[in-house]
Amino acid sequence: MKTLLKKTEAYDVHTEDACALPFSSEISQTEIAKLCDYLTKKTNKQFPILTDSNINLSLLNGNIENFIGISQIPTGVIGPLKVHGTAANGAYYVPLATSEGALVASYHRGARACLLAGGITSICLKEGIQRSPVFKFENLNDLSLFISWFLAKKESLHDIVKNTSRFAKLTDTKIQIEGNHLTISFEYFTADASGQNMVTICTDAICRFMIDQCPVKPSHWFIEGNSSGDKKATAYSFNNVRGKKVTAEIELSAKIVSEVLKTSSALMDRYWRTSTMGVIQSGAIGAQGHYANGLTALFIATGQDVACVAEAATGITRMELNSNGSLYACVTLPNLIVGTVGGGTNLPTQRECLDMMDCYGEGNSIKYAEIAAALVLAGELSIAAALSAGQFTQAHQKFGRKKSL
Amino acid sequence: MKTLLKKTEAYDVHTEDACALPFSSEISQTEIAKLCDYLTKKTNKQFPILTDSNINLSLLNGNIENFIGISQIPTGVIGPLKVHGTAANGAYYVPLATSEGALVASYHRGARACLLAGGITSICLKEGIQRSPVFKFENLNDLSLFISWFLAKKESLHDIVKNTSRFAKLTDTKIQIEGNHLTISFEYFTADASGQNMVTICTDAICRFMIDQCPVKPSHWFIEGNSSGDKKATAYSFNNVRGKKVTAEIELSAKIVSEVLKTSSALMDRYWRTSTMGVIQSGAIGAQGHYANGLTALFIATGQDVACVAEAATGITRMELNSNGSLYACVTLPNLIVGTVGGGTNLPTQRECLDMMDCYGEGNSIKYAEIAAALVLAGELSIAAALSAGQFTQAHQKFGRKKSL
Amino acid sequence: MKTLLKKTEAYDVHTEDACALPFSSEISQTEIAKLCDYLTKKTNKQFPILTDSNINLSLLNGNIENFIGISQIPTGVIGPLKVHGTAANGAYYVPLATSEGALVASYHRGARACLLAGGITSICLKEGIQRSPVFKFENLNDLSLFISWFLAKKESLHDIVKNTSRFAKLTDTKIQIEGNHLTISFEYFTADASGQNMVTICTDAICRFMIDQCPVKPSHWFIEGNSSGDKKATAYSFNNVRGKKVTAEIELSAKIVSEVLKTSSALMDRYWRTSTMGVIQSGAIGAQGHYANGLTALFIATGQDVACVAEAATGITRMELNSNGSLYACVTLPNLIVGTVGGGTNLPTQRECLDMMDCYGEGNSIKYAEIAAALVLAGELSIAAALSAGQFTQAHQKFGRKKSL
Amino acid sequence: MKTLLKKTEAYDVHTEDACALPFSSEISQTEIAKLCDYLTKKTNKQFPILTDSNINLSLLNGNIENFIGISQIPTGVIGPLKVHGTAANGAYYVPLATSEGALVASYHRGARACLLAGGITSICLKEGIQRSPVFKFENLNDLSLFISWFLAKKESLHDIVKNTSRFAKLTDTKIQIEGNHLTISFEYFTADASGQNMVTICTDAICRFMIDQCPVKPSHWFIEGNSSGDKKATAYSFNNVRGKKVTAEIELSAKIVSEVLKTSSALMDRYWRTSTMGVIQSGAIGAQGHYANGLTALFIATGQDVACVAEAATGITRMELNSNGSLYACVTLPNLIVGTVGGGTNLPTQRECLDMMDCYGEGNSIKYAEIAAALVLAGELSIAAALSAGQFTQAHQKFGRKKSL
């Protein structure tokens, strides 16, 4: 370990510092100018490109506070990604926003192999998003009385949800007891919204009803006890569903593996086995290669809550050599938090990118999820091909930045 | 479970489909136009905003392939975030690119509480990034002969690294044996680059030397056996370092907790305890609230490899009520993959955003990491405050999108 | 790393070696003698104490093969352990078979503190034991057809179970899909038997029915796909139930903490907090101290399947300082695989030990589980007390073996 | 969920109850009689077999308190288990104490297949056992000053260890910082003892020296912060070593797989792949079948700390079909806590069982560990064979108890 700490200087908190950054949730040229002036004065830097955008500011309401400008993320396209699912059915073009060289090229190669093989089967298996309040009682006796009351009232909760949201439906409640802590996981169907705010507001309404009516009051309660898996990879969500659970598969002929992926099915199978041992050794949740790469780029381009990559980039990848020399491959993603309405989906480029995938607006979230899983499968095939055949380094040397060595 | 599959239609792979998307790693208006025409023909959609950018295309070389345009991400600013570290020392303004309402407001509130408390101590404890090739042998006998040879040659690997990269230094090698599989984790210091490509290229050079010289050849080897924790949360990386390991702490007076965070130290302590039980129940790696939110927004704004949020958003948050009524809080992030050179750091808005934090270019990556950890601490305080005091739902109703219920 | 391998000698497999150990599932003095003679001839050692037992050999049928004799395990008693539960209600004496000095003393001290505090509330929350066959199909299409058929037949499975076992009841079925792999987790109530064999036999009957009747056959199927958590700690079982799920709590006055446990509630609280951070850092499943110690000793004494400690010794321990200076403590064990009939419960000393706890035979497994959880709580309190107050080392010096330093 | 709680009765703590069980760490017929009388009076039960033992009571000192008698565990033998290792080299007979029918038969079958194949290569790769004290400071500044001091004193700790124990050697120290918590993991070599008490006493001596001498005192410190993985499966220990790390491998010809294991290499390979997906889905640490079965039975028979099965039964099993139709199989166990001196190794039957393996006393712990890993490999092969070929249910019906359905 290195020396830890250089001596910290004494400092004062000046009142003007403490309150100076002009906070505002209003979005206007005036506010931007005010913020810019302040920042330039403080940092001696200017932000001409960040602030130079002709975006319609009124579209940004509810998406951001202290708005200063627009970050520009390079965006490429791959495809067609041929998908056969329950909602996705066709050849899709997928926008990927990233600054990592070789990423778009790699996913495109995977998509091309799958296209030549006739397309990916991709199926949304389940939907559900949770909010998990926790109630703390004096002791187990009180907790058990509360539960008895709750179980009797359970059916009436549906009405509360109905009166709170047009879209949300309460689909399941799960109870966890840990001493005098009671966690109730409320699971919802939230139509085509990713739904995190919706389930917060509905669960809040349920909890307020419960606290108001219950005969035994908890000593404390919190709307989320940090067990729902929000913004983090968890074994619990991995074993259940969070957002949408999708599985996708393909069979690639020996010829496609050789001609498009430049490796062999046997080498792919060998690499998969070996790397599965590696990922087990690393103590990951699930076993996959690089779901995060494709999902992050797709989420940025299409107005998703990108931080949900933390949970979405979890799952299982499997590859198998078939006796006829072909390769079977599949991915399973149980935590795809995605939406085609709400969040950032209505922002200008985000909407165009959703449109490119034929996924903008209501009725499209399952289709989006099935395409996302197919994308992920294409990416797993391409990276495994590169690693199995020793092309990985060269691909990064070819497409990546040359100056950084 | 719902019905799984609607019958998939029979389909043909038309040759023109299969090769039609005009792939190119060249970035030019000609290529963009070609791609756009193709996409419009195929999807019947247009992308006027996505493609309408006056970005200097030559800057994008090595960052993207099949480039079509620029995704626009709303960006807000928080601060000043006062940080005392080994490299960070001062009041910083932090750009956050997101479309999630309430996020910027929440981090700003946390930063303000910390500012009034005199600032966050944030210390980079360790650095290191790994590439972990795997070698498969006939049996343990061969493997042990290989290791004996390797251990004798270990010192000469430093020269190979030196001849491959100006920046990279080999700092550690760890051996894992699992039957006839040998994994060697090479750990590097990569200066101010996040370094993933650098360590790939250096490790490739090492491996080629090893394969060429070793007396007992492995039957297979792969440059990465998927044990390095690349693009995923792993228990292994959580217990070691991947990128930079930073810990940050603050002590907030009872007055600040009450006046800025609108709760009490006792409630914060209570919430932390309860939610730590929750996150343990969920089977997370580590125990934290929402590191992913702040890190993702920061990474998008500042040209980081955003997919690394998968691993970076891991760590431990702790809060404690002190006997004088103040609140101690700390975060520890062992897997901060960040850089201030290379990757997307040189892109136009990304560079401005790094400049805003005084973090653009060489010599700034430790400072950047210490600011990032301080940001995360501000965010943990703010969300825990909201959840402890029942403000969480209201905050999202106030700042979030109104139309989605 | 040390030198790995000394050269292995060449060797021959002599036919007499290969078949020489006289295997037998018959238990008789003749077989014992035959085995002993063989072993003495081969090893030049004698086993007079191991083989000198007047146990009724006929009792051992179905419990062991290649029987040679009786291992003698020292057994101590703690108590009374006062328990208030749904089935346990009274003061119990608990036998612990171990050779680890200080273990019995430590659990006894914890039990004494709990007794003085009025006893432990211990509640069995859920029961269920699983067998999880896996079915592999050509592709997702076939798999989905199989599931459709299965869901329609689901109700008829209860009859199969009824016809296979007098005791087992099928209580739940859960489906997991991973590409073309379908896992069905069948969960059973198995009365007072731990039930692992019962659920194997019932699930085998179900599977044979399914394979016989289903319109789409899987290409392979296995009665257990290693997902049921049998003989291992898993995040899945930790979040569900395996065997019995029990939670137990106590409130200890400041006086008891001080006089019996020789520490203070504040120190206990402090130790719990700190050690919970430690166990999170270690990447455990759940968060507890040493459940394995008490459970193993109890399981050995009472004829349980001791290997199930691997899964049973998982859960969450929590301790909290109350405002009145008392200490709240609880444990939650979701994977208590225990039985009071079958297995080794009928063996001579095992039966006496079950009798000591008033837990021998039918109708006692919930009581047993509630006592087991209370035992575990007593042990967590005692070790945390020792560690919080710096007595841990001394306790081991006092009670442990003196010669080993 | 079922009704949770029947009303608990009011109760009094009678003084005589609270102190009545006559606690004693002295082992004598007098104490046994006293305890028996008390228990019989309280429970109305008698324990004639438990208490009827002619064991030399003086041998039990330091192994047990409140001793009442001897638990009798049926013990079978398997073998010869042919092992080629660094210390084990020969054909061993392995005692297994269990009451689970079919267990001994299954391990014996696996051993027989391995014997016919020429024996198992089993190699102890590393040794080390940890004690991990935690030090809590006011803040990071104090913590960093403490570390600076510690790093300068590090070398002098070896002398403290030398003066505390004849056997222990300090081999490594690892530092973990989490906010103001500092954990130092001291790793030792403890010769042929499993060493948990030894490392406690040595670390206690180190800590007392540190607390006495350090210029900045911690506000609290604890000899174990629950991060060492003692008595629990942890990702940390799985990735490092705890006790002994051993890997073992075998290659079985197609003929042996078919004739002894009654299955085929292809089916074994298929089962391994499929079940590895299953165990990943279950969220286990590592990926194995039933290490706990063999290890528990071996540990009980040979005087080990059986509760360490919680950590020892962790690792990775791998099986692969070779192109010549043979099967490669290996196991890796990083957390084998075993000893051949100290603990229960000197007890009468335990010593005979160690003798049977030629493992009693000094100089034998590595041999023991290599045999244990070989045993585990035999067990993994046998259960995978049974499951792959559909024999699993029948084996349990044949050898298991018939009455329990």
UniProtKB/TrEMBL annotation, chains A, B, C, D:
Keyword Oxidoreductase: yes
Record keywords: NADP, Oxidoreductase
A Pfam match: HMG-CoA_red
Transmembrane segments: none
Enzyme Commission numbers on file: 1.1.1.34
InterPro entries hit by this protein: HMG_CoA_Rdtase, HMG_CoA_Rdtase_cat_sf, HMG_CoA_Rdtase_CS, HMG_CoA_Rdtase_eu_arc, HMG_CoA_Rdtase_NAD(P)-bd_sf, HMG_CoA_Rdtase_sub-bd_dom_sf
Enzyme class: oxidoreductase
Keyword Oxidoreductase: yes
Family: Belongs to the HMG-CoA reductase family.
PANTHER family linked: 3-HYDROXY-3-METHYLGLUTARYL-COENZYME A REDUCTASE (PTHR10572)
Protein's name in the database: hydroxymethylglutaryl-CoA reductase (NADPH)
Organism annotation: Sphingobacterium kitahiroshimense
